[in-house]
């Protein structure tokens, strides 16, 4: 435990600019080509950020400590993501400096990503190609359009990092599972069956789905069925009852109720309103 006097707090200052409010994602600032001292990890105080911080160590060597007990080496190409209020310290180690590009961000959209397990504090593999300098260059331009572009590019970067940390199931097995779910839309897989297919425990499966899709397994499966059903309603001539059966719903009323909950309209109205647009 570290008392408050020994914790260095980095504050989030200012309100979210109006241009970022609709997307809920605010890029604060970026630093490029910062070279921290060799073995600086051991002199770095425990810190707490009131925002998200992404540090890409593209050269040197380092070490990361988190309050959850994590302490590990940082290799060139690793990125350290720190979520708000997570106690942390990192810096150079093994006689090497910590050479980084970094960027900081905040907002309700970022908080929502974190709540779904997509922005957990820890090490992510980003590679040695430097990606943050491009974002820093965009941030230097005050034009609103460019600022929004910087926020969008950062979200793309963060999304590309997600599979690089999950490590709970191979990409090939994951893609095969999704293919089977899509091709056999009339079947209802249980969480246990999906976990068995990937060779993991059900709690691990739930984490994999949250990280890779933002949804729990059952939620993903039902949304997949309903999105496929929506396409079928526009392409085919089946009745609502037959469409429900095609996608695994035994009861047309239940299907209609779940469809309306997702799309905001009944299957009948969805077909009537959108079929002529195809």
Description:
Keywords: Cytoplasm, DNA-binding, Transcription, Transcription regulation. GO terms for molecular function: DNA-binding transcription factor activity; sequence-specific DNA binding. InterPro entries: AraC-bd (IPR003313), AraC_XylS_family_regulators (IPR050204), Homeodomain-like_sf (IPR009057), HTH-like (IPR037923), HTH_AraC (IPR018060). It holds the Pfam family HTH_18. This is HTH-type transcriptional activator RhaS. The chain is an alpha+beta fold and 278 residues long. It folds into two domains: 163 residues, Jelly Rolls, CATH 2.60.120.10; 107 residues, Homeodomain-like (Arc Repressor Mutant, subunit A, Orthogonal Bundle). The protein has eleven helices and ten strands. The strands form three sheets. It has a five-stranded antiparallel β-sheet with strand order 2-9-4-7-10. A three-stranded antiparallel β-sheet has the order 6-5-8, with no helix packed on it. Strands 1-3 form a two-stranded parallel sheet. A hairpin with a 4-residue loop joins β5 and β6. The longest helix has 19 residues. The chain is elongated, with a radius of gyration of 23 Å. The chain starts with 6 loop residues before the first strand and ends with a helix. The N terminus is likely disordered.
In spatial order, strands of the major sheet run: 2-9-4-7-10
Query: How much strand content do the residues show?
Result: 15-25%
CATH architecture of the largest domain: Sandwich
- From the spread of the alpha carbons, the general shape counts as elongated
Mean pLDDT rating: 90
How many domains make up the 3D coordinates? 2
Distance between the termini: 61 Å
Q: Which class of secondary structure composition applies to the elements?
A: alpha+beta
Determine the number of helices (DSSP H or I, runs of at least 4 residues).
11
Helix content: 40-55%
Top CATH class of the largest domain: Mainly Beta
The number of strands is 10
Strand count, sense and barrel status of the largest sheet are: 5 strands, antiparallel
Pick out the low-confidence regions.
Answer: 1-5
Query: CATH topology of the largest domain, what is it called?
Result: Jelly Rolls
């Amino acid at each position: 435990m570290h008392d408050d006097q020994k914790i260095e707090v980095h504050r989030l200052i200012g309100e979210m600019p109006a241009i970022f409010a609709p997307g809920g994602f605010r890029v604060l600032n970026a630093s490029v080509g910062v070279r921290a001292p060799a073995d600086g990890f051991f002199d770095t105080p425990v810190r707490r950020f009131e925002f998200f911080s992404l540090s890409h160590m593209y050269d040197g060597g380092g070490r990361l400590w988190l309050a959850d007990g994590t302490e590990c080496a940082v290799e060139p190409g690793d990125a350290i993501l720190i979520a708000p209020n997570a106690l942390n310290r990192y810096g150079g180690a093994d006689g090497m400096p910590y050479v980084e590009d970094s960027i900081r961000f905040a907002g309700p959209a970022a908080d929502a990503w974190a709540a779904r397990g997509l922005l957990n504090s820890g090490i992510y593999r980003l590679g040695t190609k430097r990606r943050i300098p491009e974002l820093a260059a965009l941030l230097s331009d005050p034009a609103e359009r460019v600022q929004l572009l910087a926020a969008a590019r950062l979200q793309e970067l963060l999304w590309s990092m997600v599979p690089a940390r999950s490590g709970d199931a191979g990409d090939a097995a994951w893609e095969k599972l999704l293919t089977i779910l899509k091709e056999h839309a009339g079947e209802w897989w249980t969480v246990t069956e999906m976990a068995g297919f990937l060779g993991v425990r059900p709690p691990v499966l739930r984490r994999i789905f949250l990280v890779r899709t933002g949804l729990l397994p059952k939620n993903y499966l039902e949304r997949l069925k309903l999105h496929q059903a929506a396409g079928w309603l526009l392409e085919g001539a089946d009745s609502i009852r037959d469409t429900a059966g095609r996608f695994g719903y035994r009861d047309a009323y239940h299907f209609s109720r779940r469809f309306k909950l997702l799309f905001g309209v009944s299957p009948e109205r969805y077909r009537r309103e959108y079929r002529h647009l195809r």
